[in-house]
Amino acid sequence: xxxxxxxxxxxxxxxxxxxxxxxxxxxxxxxxxxxxxxxxxxxxxxxxxxxxxxxxxxxxxxxxxxxxxx
Length: 70
Fold this sequence. Notes:
Blueprint: H1 7-13, E1 18-26, E2 29-36, E3 42-46, H2 56-67
Antiparallel strand pairs: 1-2, 2-3
Helix pairs in contact: 1-2
């Protein structure tokens, strides 16, 4: 079975200690729910544009900034 083109974005979150729960799409807006694996805390992150328009390194930096990681 072929992997989704969005799998690579889910895999970016894992080394940060985050598990991607789900993604809500509404027009040009995407909201990603992430769970901190260690604490169980859930973060809701609204992306500035759809994931397929964001390079992986920029996506990782945006997630870190949104949840307060360094």
